[in-house]
Design a protein that fits this description.
The chain has five helices and seven strands. By secondary structure, it is α+β, with helices and mostly antiparallel strands. A seven-stranded antiparallel β-sheet has the order 2-1-5-6-7-4-3. Strand 1 and strand 2 form a beta hairpin. The longest helix has 9 residues.
């Protein structure tokens, strides 16, 4: 878990119960990309099934921040890509939430390499 900026229990419940989120990388106003997500050990993860060459993964890596929309809520976020220490239960969480559809996110090395941890952005003082 990222101790600096943690998701609330209510956020984690919403992530677990909602099928997908919309991710907008950077400061753009575009429509973003709708993707599946899973919370594991208090952190939120998404994967690009097309791998690190995916356009939205590249944008997340370039900018390192953005916004997510889950249900009717929009949150500013920090996007961490690259050498993440992935939690042991991440693949199981994708499998439990998405069933056979998750195979593209679990079994393909390119998708595993394109894992992003999404953290809440720090709130300005």
């Amino acid at each position: 878990m990222n101790p600096t900026h943690a998701w609330t229990p209510e956020d984690l419940t919403a992530f677990a119960e909602t099928y997908s989120l919309v991710l907008i990388a950077g400061d753009g106003e575009g429509g973003g990309v709708e993707i599946g997500m899973v919370p594991v050990d208090g952190d939120l993860y998404v994967r690009a099934y097309r791998g690190t060459r995916s356009r939205w993964y590249q944008a997340a890596r370039e900018h390192g921040h953005g916004r997510i929309r889950v249900g009717g809520t929009t949150r500013e976020v920090v996007l961490t890509t690259g050498d993440l220490a992935l939690p042991a239960g991440l693949d199981d969480a994708f499998r439990a939430k998405y069933g056979p559809v998750s195979d593209a996110l679990i079994a393909v090395p390119q998708a595993r390499a394109a894992t992003i941890r999404i953290d809440p952005a720090p709130v300005p003082a």
